[in-house]
Amino acid sequence: MIKILFLFLGLHVVQTSNDLVEMRKQLDLAANDSKVADQFSDRFRKLDEKTAAPVTLGFKAISEMIQAKHAFNPINKVSHFKKGKRLLELAISKAPKNPELIFFRYTTQVNVPAMLNYSDNVKNDRQLLVNFLKADASAPKDPDLHRRIKKYLITDKPGSKAETEMLKNL
Asked: Mean of the per-residue pLDDT values for the chain?
């Protein structure tokens, strides 16, 4: 009986990991395709923000921010952005050291226009992400997340030359 329970728990962890990888892939596509963005957003529409797991709530937040990117009307853009920001900060308040959520906030803050005044955490979040990569380097618990963060910090928003070289060697 105990073996069956552990087998079930192990399958649940694998399923959760696979779900995260699939959601990340859909998120990547949604960033550049409004139809995929709508599908991605629909996935989280009925999610209860009070009871949702922090990472799932983070994905809902990002889905709102992507809707802002694709919206034509400036009022809708701001509305989606504000909702996404509120949800992301709520998710982070529930899991303040979660690297996925910190990555969501970091990538958002370095890419939104300055006029939205959402860049207070860039420096601290980058340091948290670098620390995560260092601690997770020898045996990543989530190889897909580790790879995504590392690639982003090295190629999309590189830091100092020394930091970039250090990250490449992890």
From this structure: 89
pLDDT tens digit sequence for 142-164: 999 999 999 999 998 888 899 99
Residues 6+ apart with CB under 8 A from 69: 31, 37, 77
Single-letter amino acid, residue 90: L
Name, in order, each residue with C-beta under 8 angstroms of 63's C-beta and a sequence gap of 6 or more: 27, 30, 37, 40, 41, 43, 44, 84
- Token reading at 63: 């889905």
Q: What is the 3-class SS of 112-155, one letter each residue?
A: CCHHHCCCCCHHHHHHHHHHHHHHHCCCCCCHHHHHHHHHHHHH
| CA separation for the pair 57, 78 (Å, rounded) | 19
Q: Rounded CA gap, 162 and 166, in Å?
A: 6
Stated pTM of the model: 0.87
d(CA 69, CA 123): 24
| Strand residue runs (E) in the chain | none
Q: Which residue has the tokens 């921010």?
A: 65
CA separation (Å) from 106 to 42, 45, 50? Answer: 24, 24, 23
